Every structure is written in structure tokens, then in C-alpha cells.
Write the C-alpha cells for this entry.
Amino acid sequence: MKVKKLIESFNYAFEGIIYTLKTERNMRIHFFIAIVVLSFSLFLDLSKDEFLILLLTISIVIIAEMINTAIEAAIDLMTDEYHLFAKISKNVAAGGVLIAAINSIIVAYLIFFHRLNPYTQILLNRVRQSPIHITFVVLIITIFTTIGLKAYFGRGTPIQGGMPSGHAAIAFATATSITFISENMFIATLAVFMALLVSQSRIEGKIHSFYEVLVGAILGTLISIIFFQIIG
């Protein structure tokens, strides 16, 4: 009987996780990033302490998102009208998720930066002599490519909505170009962070889906890399 109750408890817990994944876009983003980071960590020589900190950080973000979802569901159950305290509760819960997410970025930077820096410097040195006008060519081609894809998929306008996200493509093309030109990992990190903020704003504004932004980011990055490495 106790075993049956234990199994039921596990089932309820998994139902909660699955519900959050189905209903919360941010939870899906957190899971995707967690899978990417954990997969990437397999190729690096992480110590046990570093891996433990990485797992703990990922868990904190996911737990915070689930608590936020639970609080929102409980408030929506109690009332469907605007109330100041309901707003405060949701905002505080969302703030907790934000702090956990910022902490995860800092942890990832501290763990991975010194390992990635040598490889990044090798990559950047290969394109050190690239002409500066390539940056503008990259941006123009990125814009033309996104417009062409929007026309092909038949959704959105050249500057709003549709597949892929033009803002994300241009933001990441610019960030990649800044990375190649500056050859400075700190500046490159700031550029990528700004590109991520642009992408996040498109998702939060419900102008693009996560996948549209992701495709745009990959497109902009790849076009920049191709031009700077091959033509450069």
C-alpha cells in the first residue's frame, strides 16, 4: 500500500512537470537550454564540484519556474479579477525566476569562459584581417534572406512577425560581427547578451515564437561566420 502511494506521488510530480512544460513557454526554453548546456559540458573537463554547481543552478531555475507556475495557477483559481495583491504575488514569483536565470548565466560564464576562450581566440585570429565592409555585407544579406524566408512561409511582414525573426537574425549577425572584429571575449559576451535581450523582447511581445527567434538567431550567426571565415 505504501509502495502504491509512493508511485502515485511520483506520478503526480511528473504530471506537474509535464503540465508546466506544456503550458509555460519559458519552461520549455529553460529545458532546451539545460539540455544544450549539459550536452556541451560532456566535451569539457569539468570537475565534480563544477558539475555539481551546474546541476544545482539548472535545478534552481527549473524549480523557480515551477513555483511561479503554481502561484499563478493558485491565484487564477481564487480570482479572475484584477487585484493589487494578486499582481504583487505574480510579480514577486516572476522576479524569483529572473534572479535564478541571471544567476545561471553568471555561473555558466564562470565555468565555461576560461575553457572556451583559447578556442575562441584561435577562431578569431583566423579572421583578424577580414575587411571591415564584410560586416555591412553580412547585415544586408541577412536582411534579404529573412525577407525571402518570410515571403516563402507567407507569414508576417519584413519587420514584424513571421518565420524567421528578422530582429533576432540581425542582432546575432551584428553580435557575431562584433565578436570577430573586436577579438575580445568580454566585448563579445556583451554583444551576445544584447542580442539575447532583443530576441527575448520579440518573444515576450508575442511577435515571434521561440522557434522563429531561434531560427533567426542561427541564420544570422551562420551567415556572419560563413562570410568572415570563408570570404574573409
In short: The chain has two domains: 1-116, 127-232. The domain at 1-116 is CATH 1.10.287.3610 (Helix Hairpins). The chain is about 85% helix and 0% strand.
